[in-house]
Amino acid sequence: MLLRDLYGMAAHSVASHPLRSLLTAGGIAVGIAAVTLLTTLGQGVQRYVLAEFTQFGTHLIAVNPGKTETVGMMGGILATVRPLTFADAEALARLPEVQAVVPGIYGNGRVSAGRRARSTYVNGVNHNMPEVWRFQVRAGRFLPPDDDAAARALAVLGSRLKTELFGAESALGRTIRVGERRFRVVGVMAPKGQVLGFDMDDAVYIPAAQALALFNREGLMEVDLLYRAGGDEARLVEAIKRTLTARHGREDFTIVTQNQMIDVLGRILGVLTFAVAALGGISLLVGAVGIVTIMSIAVGERVGEIGLLRALGATRGRVMALFLGEAVLLALGGALIGLAAGIGGARLIGALVPALPVRTPWGYALLALAVSMLIGLAAGVFPARRAARLDPVEALRAE
Amino acid sequence: MIALEGVGRTFTVGGSPVHALVDVALAVRAGDYLSIMGPSGSGKSTLLNVLGLLDRPNAGRYLLDGREVGTLNDTEQAAVRLHQFGFVFQFFHLVPRMTAAQNVGLPLTLAGVPAPQRQERVAQALAACGLADRAGHRPDQLSGGQRQRVAIARATIMNPQVILADEPTGNLDRASGEQVVGILEDLNRRGMTLIVVTHDPAVGERAQRRIHMDDGRISADHAR
Amino acid sequence: MTVLAQLRFALAALAGHRARSLLMVLAMAIGVAAVVVLTALGEGARRYVVGEFASLGTNLVIVLPGRSETTGGPPPLTGLAPRDLTIADAQALLASPAITDVAPVVVGAAPVAAGGREREVLALGSTRSLLPVRHMTVAEGRFLPGGDPERGPPVAVLGATLRRELFGNRRAVGEQIRIGDRRFRVVGVLTDTGRSVGLDLNDLVVIPVAQAQALLNAPSLFRILAQARGPAAIAQAQDDIRATIRARHEGEDDVTVITQDSVMNTFDAILGTLTLVVGGIAAISLVVAGILVMNVMLVAVSHRTAEIGLLKAIGARPGVVLRLFLAEAALLSVLGAAGGLALGYGGVALIGALVPDFPVAAPAWAVAAALLVATGTGLLFGVWPARRAARLDPVQALARR
Description:
The structure holds three protein chains of three kinds. By secondary structure, chain A is α+β, with helices and mostly antiparallel strands. Chain A folds into two domains: 3-52 and 263-397, no CATH class; 83-251, no CATH class. Helices cover 56% and strands 19% of the residues of chain A. Chain A is built from 13 helices and 13 strands. Chain A has a six-stranded mixed barrel with strand order 3-4-11-6-8-7. In chain A, strand 3 (98-113) and strand 4 (116-125) form a beta hairpin. Chain B is α/β, with parallel strands linked by helices. In chain B, the strands form two sheets. In chain B, strands 6-7-8-3-9-10 form a six-stranded mixed sheet, with helices on both faces. In chain B, strand 1 (2-13) and strand 2 form a beta hairpin. Chain B is globular and about 50 Å long. Chain C has helices at residues 3-16, 18-55, 87-92, 130-133, 160-167, 209-216, 234-248, 260-303, 305-313, 318-354, 364-390, 394-399, and strands at residues 60-65, 99-114, 117-126, 138-141, 155-158, 176-179, 182-190, 204-208, 223-228, 255-259. The longest helix of chain C is centred in the C-terminal third of the chain and has 44 residues, at 260-303. Chain C is elongated. The model of chain C has no long low-confidence stretch (mean pLDDT 86). Chains in contact: A-B, A-C. Strand 2 of chain A pairs parallel with strand 2 (99-114) of chain C, so a sheet runs across the interface.
């Protein structure tokens, strides 16, 4: 028997009960639509979060004081008896393949200019920050390449802070106070927007040494390294470890590469997406029970026909293939409807929430079709076997 | 061509054995016209099912053209049914959602004949049964006689050696029945072996060779 | 026809197609069980987190140095600000009648050594008040002594893990240890608390706050934990803290005040929403089951056309036929819902047995909603087939076979 004819026959009998077939396929369709929609949204969130991270580039390595086992996720926030110093940062800057280094210390403080004041984020960095973090300066320039340990009291404003303090006036050359200290404004950053909840525009950037003095603190919170594209990250991490261990006498720091962060985040979000998809899969399971039910009914209705096919020379395998084919067709049809609905729904959400990068996951779509085919097969096996095992004499008598 | 030797078939009904066929021996030559008659439960339908390889005997041998077919596996038996036998049933057994042409074409479909050749042969078979204008009708749009003629067209489409007819007129009025028997006899005249199970003496008496069955045994075997 | 008779009729019809009826019941049951189990997991997570927060202390108000005027962003977690938050600031908060106790906190990483073994752990500087405020208990010896928090003797209280790592089975209380380059005497060991959100209380050392400031060279406090007199006093405590600090900081509002309740409520709301969403996704399967019931009932109506014709011929009104088929759909749904409840509660009990620490429990609202949706969809999707049956013309119905 030609495969085309086999499916032609299966399709013919599926089409002969349009309402029943549509409702059966509808069960699968709801499940596939749910899975498609949920995975699309999950991937959208994943892509959004990863984009938030990769906007800083992927050739970044962060070094924090303290070991992760001790301080957990708190990284450099906590005080430590063995802090990271400017000398450490300089030593790291001399490593091969390192392009730029930013010593970092982050806190909050009151920034005032004339009568206006605002409590905001105070970020202690150095002149390399725009290059390492991929930030743009809108007006003036960024901090000059002073000696990290003895930098002058200059400041660069985030765009929002600049508007809050100076309105439409130019801020360049003006004096501001951060805490009790005076700084001269040399530049204003281009707007960056929120990054993972932090408003990057509501901040002032000052030299790290000035920030240490302002916060009355000894050690750096973090040293960020930018390495040359194509550099060997693993080797560089080893070099950092060796250098700092030699300087400190022990390994009392934590190295996290941007790629590790992105990896871990991607994996977590991937697992979440999968979990959500699995939840939607419960509907598919129920839809599969629906196919079993309807195919069982169909076998019961068509006992005579099965007997006839056997008398005409159809093998058991052929009868089984026919009914399996019908089950698969029902599942596939449902999957196609469900995919269309799911993709349409995702597009709609994408249109309503423009920030969410909703793209149709064609890989998932193909997977959904393959899975629905398997569902059809699995759900069809029980009824199809019953059909194939019917005794032809009995079956012919049933009419 | 057909040779049954010592064939027995026993069913178990409600825990006790029923002997549907007991030590049946039967030889049929190619081109024979054979009728099998007998009261209900005499085993005539079982004999037909065994002949058509729909049922397996518990004992004895079944030779078809000298080949032992009773012990073939399911797939091999299906192939024999497809190519060497044509079945005609009392209740027609047409697939209700298919047109007359599709019903007639079913064996060709099962045999893997491509659609264009199929159409040609179906049209010929329908025309031979006087149904050329009914090709697109579904069974529920046809009369009983027309349905049985569609079934005969289906039974002959593969050019089988043997036509097995189980009460072919049992569900028809006399005129339709005459027509159907006429077509079957016509096929026999052109060389097909025809075996008809019937309890209607008027139909059975027309055969050249008439077999009577009682309690699973052949009680009489007359030839004209 | 009485309701009971109708139900019996429907039951007989369902029993006539046992496999088919069981499959439909199974479909419904999967949906209901999924809703029960998943919402139970969500509710378990919520209870777990709420429980963890409660164990951190009650009616807590937390003061962080620094403030950000950006709305919606996270609080200034780094704890760095131009003006230090001092021990004197913390002590001044006690003046508020809404506040019963105050614990200043300094946290840092430091190596702790004893008898040749060394381990880098969290060093927590605080006062005697930390014990009641943070709901900690002492297993051996005693906690930090009272007295002037600005001074404080070189004594230390060890977490359970740290004690094991440094001393093994030997006695720890009374022994000398070194933290950084300073010497301390162990006066107590904390009770093993198991895993906990936030700080790991087992692998740390608690020392007087003034000692920690000197050790870590941290002039500013990292946090102040203040305990309000009761839930009703929390708002008052927050206001008093802001006023006190402003007065002490030359009129500048440079601290952030958050309450444990608000943090907990945020988690509570997030996990509650999560439970709702997860339950909702699971409930989609109930709709699928409903479609299945409708489908099979439609098939049943067409199979039983003659039976319906007969019922009408012997005088059954359309309403009765309608109710007969509706009763079948309802019966299927109710059986499915009951099966699903059994399955779901079985699953919940299993999870509870496998993970005893996790307070898994199906929330009543979710169970009620699942049952309602299951029977509701069953009935809703049963209406169309039932109406189809009720509207059949008896003559045609009997004629068709």
